Amino acid sequence: MTECGERTTGTAVPLGEGGRTDSATEAFVAHRNLLFTVAYEMLGSAADAEDVLQETWLRWAGVDLDTVGDRRAYLVRITTRQALSRLRTLGRRRESYIGPWLPEPLLTTPDVAEDVELADSVSMAMLLVLETLHPTERAVFVLREVFDLGYDEIADAVGKSPAAVRQIAHRARSHVAARRPRDVVTPAETRDALQAFQRAVETGDLQGLLDVLAPDVVLLTDGGGLKRAVPRPVAGAGKVARLLAAGVVKFGAGVSVEPVQVNGWPGLLLRIDGEIDGVLAMRVETGLVTGLYFVRNPEKLSHVERETVLSR
C-alpha cells in the first residue's frame, strides 16, 4: 500500500513537505502500476522493472512540470528509455545464464485475467516470444499492441522517426504472429486443463498426464544454477509425463500444489514441506497443454507470495 492508500508495486516514492504529495509525486503514483507493467513486459523481470521505476522517479522528480503537456506519456517515455537501456544489458547477462531462462513469474490480481489482452501480453508464453525480438522491436510492439500508444509517442520514447516506428511495428507484429499460439483459449479452458493436470500430478497418474499433454508438449525448467533443473528443454508427452511422475515419487507427501493466477492465467504454486519450491505456468491449445514453464530459481520467486497489480 502507498501512503495514498492505493495498491501498487513496491517502488518507494517520497512524500512532499508536511506529509503531502506534490504534483510530481501524485502523477507518478497515479501511473505507477502502468509504468511497472510497461517495464515488466519489456524486461520479463519484476526486480528489474522495479529498478527501472526507481530510475524513472529520480528523473521525473527533476522535470519542470510546466513544460509537460501529457504527464502519462512523458512518464511512459522515461520508463521506456530506462527499460531499453537495461534490456540491452540483460541480453548480455542472459547469454551466460545456466540452463533455460524463463521470465520472473508474478501472482496477479483477478482483474488482470478479466482483461484478456493484458493477460495474454504478460503470459509466460508471450514473454518468451517477446524475448526473441530486438530491444527496440520489443519496446515498439509493447507500446503499440498492448498500450495502444500512437506512433508519434512511441517515436519519442525509442528515439526513432514515426515512419521508422511504423516499419518496426509491422516487422515485430509479423514476428510475434508467427510464434504466438494460433488457438484462442479462454482462462476457463486453461483452468480445466490445469485441474486435470493437477489431479494427475497429485496422484502420480501417468496416463492422466498423457491424456492432458499435447504430443509435442515442451517443458522448460529454470533453476538459474541455484536449484536443480533440467538443463535443456524436454519435448514429447511421454518424456514430460515420466519426468513429472518421477518428481512426484521423489518428493512424495511433502509436495503440495496450490492453484494460483500466474501472469494473468491459471497456474500452480508448488511447495515442498511447506516452503515455496517453484511456480508452474502453462500454455494450452485445443484443450491440451503444449507448454510447461517451471521456475525454481529462488531469486525469481519473490513476487509469488503476494499479488502484483498490473494495468494499462
β-strand number: 8
Strand content: 15-25%
**What gyration radius follows from the Cα positions, in whole Å?**
20 Å
Helix run count: 12
Give the SSE map.
Elements lengths: L22 H21 L2 H15 L10 H24 L12 E2 L1 H5 L1 H7 L1 H7 L4 H12 L4 H8 L3 H16 L9 H17 L2 H7 E10 L11 E2 L1 H15 L3 E8 L2 E8 L2 E11 L2 E8 L11 E2 L4
Helix pairs in contact: 1-2, 1-3, 2-3, 3-8, 7-9, 8-9, 10-11, 11-12
Question: What report would you give on this structure?
Answer:
There is one protein chain. The chain is α/β, with parallel strands linked by helices and 312 residues long. The protein is 49% helix and 16% strand. A six-stranded mixed β-sheet has the order 3-2-7-6-5-4. α8 (151-158) crosses α9 and α10 runs antiparallel to α11 (206-212). The longest helix has 24 residues, at 71-94. The two termini are 19 Å apart. Residues 1-8 and 15-20 have low confidence and may be disordered.
Keywords summarizing the entry:
312 residues; alpha/beta; six-stranded mixed beta sheet; two-stranded parallel sheet; 12 helices; 8 strands; elongated
Short description:
This protein has 312 residues and is α/β, with parallel strands linked by helices. The protein is 49% helix and 16% strand.
